[in-house]
Amino acid sequence: MSIVLIVAEQQPDGNLRKASLNAIAAGKQLADKAGGELHLVLLSKDPSKLAGELAGTGAKAVHTAAAPEFEHYLAEVFAPVVASLAQELKATFIGAASTAQGKDLLPRVAARLKAAMATDITAINGSGADITFTRPMWAGNVFAEVKLTTPVQVISIRATEFSAGAGGGAAAEVKSFQPKLEASKTKFVSFNEVKSARPELTEARVVVSGGRGTKGDFKEVEALADLLGAAVGASRAVCDAGWVPNDYQVGQTGKVVAPQLYIAAGISGAIQHLAGMKSSKTIVAINKDPEAPIFQVADYGLVEDLFKVLPALREGIQKLK
Amino acid sequence: MKILVTAKRVEDPESKIKVKPDGSDIVKEGLKYKINPFDEIGVEEGLRLAAKHTGEVVVVSIGGKEVQEQLRHALAMGANRAVWVNHTGPLDQLGIAGLLQKVAEKEKPDLVILGKQSIDDDQNQVGQYLAEFLGWGQATFASKVESLESEQEKSKSPAVVLTADKKSVQVVREVDNGLATVEVQLPAVVTTDLRLNQPRYASLPGIMKAKSKPIEELTPAALGVDVAPKIQVLKLASPPARKAGIKVPDVATLVEKLHNEAKVV
């Protein structure tokens, strides 16, 4: 029987990162297809806070380890602990959400176990011993079906492609274990959080993004976002120009989003941007240039200046409410 | 200070990538190639560090003889010499990291700087594998640091900062919801994010000088690395096409469609 081990991620604020729930859903799907069971692992200064929440997600067991060293995540501290737990459990699959932490940690875990890894998987195919994964390449212009041939397989999971499950079933058994910590050559210095009253880009139901067409003026983009309770995104050009913070960037090298509604204002639609948003359910494009590539993926396109459209759109939506 | 940087040969990010009808590969005809943009940022950061701390930059690439183009480009930017691992055929991240480990053990750099991912495979793995294989610390997704220097000076100075005792580097990392700063003992692995720096153009004298800079040739066999892939790529496919949308004439129609048809507002 194969064991699927998913690493749950605790945010600096102590809460569970929502993408972990999507990763757990993917883990459950994988366990079902491979004919195995799902285990979770949480490394934390104080795991008790999240253990209960994780126990209700439908996993067989939640393994927790507590240590002051876990307060600030470091790959060098976490990887040996995850790898040795995986060995002890004889896990055949190890996964986590494709977050900054997941991407930093998992290859290091894989290296310890001489395991091959697939990044950003969007689908799990096959069954039993014949499991394959689908993952994007070339900025999402290509999707590859890959098979990992090492005894242990490692995957990072693109959260937007797996809906978080309702949980249910029996509560998982919470087992605490003693982590064997290794000396780390890396030490944590500081974390500067970018605070926002708006929802997280990757978790928002609606995203309003601005591009070069805003000429750096995001007031209208933000006003519409706030009316819709939306997150604010941006194209890479806009972030590179320093007009908005880096973590606004939607695209293959930024955040990958898949909201119910994506409104692209003044974004031309470079390949790399499209890769980050084209799984959105409904896409609206507003651009002065009728030839802009963004219109090829938009459900509704409006060829007009965004500074005329956005205030009118706000007014129109307000009337509905 | 000795710095090892990578220069993977990839399809130009501006080119349109299409899958062959049989799904065996991408259509390569007519494509242009260049250094992986994230690696190019790594070369630039290496050059800035070497300029500031009197060091040497060695650039490495793996592939057939065509990767010498990318090595020459890095040499033209200012790298001192190049290592070419001559290998054709499939190669996965375990194989790449295994080869880079051997090159690093041979060259003994203080720092290896790689792109956080290559824009073809998009795996984002090699730096982390390499750090673990070498038993070194890692600082992935290195980004810009705040600096009190003038704009012009800032644009030239390295963002990876050597500590006063010269035994560690401080790196600002782009992570979810903010920026994390870590301090890593040397030797260490750093992977670059987009905003770390703006790579320089190769100057004409740089291009001329690059022609006479040495490129050392190695092979996986000589390095003693088994590069048989552990990742089998079974099939490539184009992403599912979105159904063609419509252009709406005005905002009122847009609101009506979003409300009644898409039911999202």
Automatic annotation (TrEMBL), chain A:
GO MF term set: electron transfer activity; flavin adenine dinucleotide binding
Origin: domain of life: Bacteria
Domain spans labelled Electron transfer flavoprotein alpha/beta-subunit N-terminal: 4-192
Keyword entries, A-Z: Electron transport, FAD, Flavoprotein, Transport
PROSITE patterns according to UniProt: ETF_ALPHA
Pfam families named among the record's database cross-references: ETF, ETF_alpha
Binding-site positions, FAD: 212, 235-236, 249-253, 266-273, 287
GO BP annotations listed: fatty acid beta-oxidation using acyl-CoA dehydrogenase
Listed CDD domains: ETF_alpha
Named cofactor requirement(s): FAD
The record's free-text note on cofactor binding: Binds 1 FAD per dimer.
Protein family per UniProt: Belongs to the ETF alpha-subunit/FixB family.
Biological function: The electron transfer flavoprotein serves as a specific electron acceptor for other dehydrogenases. It transfers the electrons to the main respiratory chain via ETF-ubiquinone oxidoreductase (ETF dehydrogenase).
Protein name per its UniProtKB record: Electron transfer flavoprotein subunit alpha
Protein species of origin: Corallococcus sicarius
Automatic annotation (TrEMBL), chain B:
The UniProt record lists the keyword Transport: yes
Gene3D superfamilies, per the entry: HUPs
UniProt-recorded Gene Ontology molecular function terms: electron transfer activity
Cofactor(s) recorded in Swiss-Prot or TrEMBL: AMP
InterPro entries for this protein: ETF_a/b_N, ETF_b, ETF_beta_N, Rossmann-like_a/b/a_fold
Superkingdom as given in the UniProt entry: Bacteria
Keyword Methyltransferase: no
SMART domains, alphabetized: ETF
Annotated keywords: Electron transport, Transport
GO biological processes: carboxylic acid catabolic process
Family annotation (Pfam families): ETF
Domain Electron transfer flavoprotein alpha/beta-subunit N-terminal: 23-227
Subunit composition and interactions: Heterodimer of an alpha and a beta subunit.
Function summary: The electron transfer flavoprotein serves as a specific electron acceptor for other dehydrogenases. It transfers the electrons to the main respiratory chain via ETF-ubiquinone oxidoreductase (ETF dehydrogenase).
Record family assignment: Belongs to the ETF beta-subunit/FixA family.
Protein name, UniProt field: Electron transfer flavoprotein subunit beta
Organism: Corallococcus sicarius
